[in-house]
Amino acid sequence: MEHRKIMQVRRLACQDRELVIEGPIPADILSGYVLHPDLDAFRRPIEQHKALVEIAELTEGRIIAVRDAETIVGYVTFHYPDELERWSEGGMDDLIELGAIEVANSYRGLGLGKRLIETAFAEEQLENAIVYTTEYYWHWDLENTGLNVWDYRAMMERLMKSVGMIWFATDDPEICSHPANCLMVRIGREVPLSSVEQFDRVRFRQRFMY
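Above: the chain sequence. Below: its structure as tokens.
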């Protein structure tokens, strides 16, 4: 599979500053930036920065980030499914996970999450891939946003729908463990039917469900 990586650079005026939304960022450039200290939802910022660089080094990996000068204040990751997760079971080279998406607290409310994922899909870079994301309520920042589970779920759905990702059914136990959890998917226009069928087999282990 061809992993199209066409560098995008977009600028956003923010009060007296200019934010830069860019990506996919090459690992050597990404390593020269620092993460905002508030980007600690998954691990300490210094460790998360290392993880982002490692993703950027992958053939399929891509990091889209928004930065204030040399400080990354938000990012989204794309990579193959973890080999320990069910989504890797199909051995698909055109199935890509939209993984972590995080924006520093003081930069929220600017629509940066939407801008990040729109940048990732620009110039048809992912039209030859099935892109999926798994939304689990226990990963959501309910405390800082002040949202309840259902409002947060609605917010995430709106965000993913902005790039054409839609809700897909699955019998995955983790997703089925709570009604707020969900699987959202975008099937690119160039994806062959054989890949769609293989993805269906991964989504459902119990064949009677589809």
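Residues 45-57 form the longest helix (13 residues).
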